[in-house]
């Protein structure tokens, strides 16, 4: 997977946070404002780069058409408290690529949700 520049990573983090907080993706103008850029063109350039690197997809013609891909999550950067909140306390749990920080974010990405019921003695 191609590495992101610092600005691309901050842009991806902004988009991820915006979706987590608002339940929908930001517009290009909102990304520019949130990143402190004067021109929406700067935001468009970084969104295009993130799309080329496979970190997000853009639905053509949609006002809020930015969709994060599973490769936009780096489990090494996932905070421990987030992992514990998601997974609960599981002994010897392995961090996989598809580890979702928020259910609203998961719904925004339009992925399948799989329920797992574990029966046993704690």
From TrEMBL:
Q: Which residues form the LexA repressor DNA-binding domain?
A: 1-65
* UniProt cross-references to Gene3D superfamilies, sorted A to Z: Winged helix-like DNA-binding domain superfamily/Winged helix DNA-binding domain
Q: Which UniProt keywords apply?
A: Hydrolase, Protease
Q: Which domain of life is it from?
A: Bacteria
Q: Which Pfam families does the record associate with it?
A: LexA_DNA_bind
Name the Enzyme Commission number(s) assigned to this protein: 3.4.21.-, 3.4.21.88
Question: Which GO molecular function terms does the record list?
Answer: serine-type endopeptidase activity
Q: Which SUPFAM superfamilies does this entry report, sorted A to Z?
A: Winged helix' DNA-binding domain (SSF46785)
For the biological process aspect of GO, one term held by this record is:
proteolysis
Query: This protein is called what?
Result: SOS-response repressor/protease
UniProt source species: Pantoea stewartii subsp. stewartii DC283
């Amino acid at each position: 997977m191609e590495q992101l520049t610092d600005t691309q990573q901050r842009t991806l983090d902004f988009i991820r946070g915006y979706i987590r907080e608002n339940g929908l993706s930001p517009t290009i103008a909102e990304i520019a404002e949130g990143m402190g850029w004067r021109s929406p063109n700067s935001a468009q350039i970084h969104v295009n780069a993130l799309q080329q690197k496979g970190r997000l997809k853009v639905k053509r013609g949609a006002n809020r058409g930015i969709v994060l891909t599973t490769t936009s999550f780096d489990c090494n950067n996932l905070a421990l408290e987030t992992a514990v909140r998601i997974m609960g306390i599981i002994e010897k749990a392995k961090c996989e690529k598809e580890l979702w920080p928020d259910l609203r974010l998961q719904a925004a990405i339009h992925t399948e949700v799989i329920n797992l019921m574990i029966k046993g003695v704690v």
